[in-house]
Amino acid sequence: MLKVGLTGGLASGKSFVGREFERLGAHVIQADRLGHLTLLPDGEAYEDVIREFGRGIVGKDGSIDRKALGAIVFPDKAKLEKLNSFIHPHVHQRQLDFFAVIAEKDPLGIAVAEAAIMIETGGYKRYDRIVLAYCSQALQIERFIEREQSTEKEALDRISRQMPIDEKRQYADYIVDTSGTKQETVRQTVDLYEKLKTEAQVS
Question: In terms of pTM, does the model score above 0.85?
Answer without folding.
Answer: yes
